[in-house]
Amino acid sequence: MIIDAIDNEQVEMLLNDVLEAHGYDFLEYSHASIKRRITRLYSLDSFVSFAEFRYAVKTDKQYFKRFLEEITVNVTEMFRDPTFYKSLRNDVLPVLGTYPFIRIWVAGCSTGEEAYSLAILLRELNLLNKSLIYATDINPSVLEKAKKGMFPLNYLKGYSENYVQSGGLKDFSSYYTANYSLVKFDESLSSKMIFSTHNLVSDHSFNEFQLILCRNVLIYFDKDLQHKVFHLFDNSLEKLGYLALGSKESLDFWANAKDYKRIKNEKIWRKL
Question: pTM, whole model, 2 decimals?
Answer without folding.
Answer: 0.83
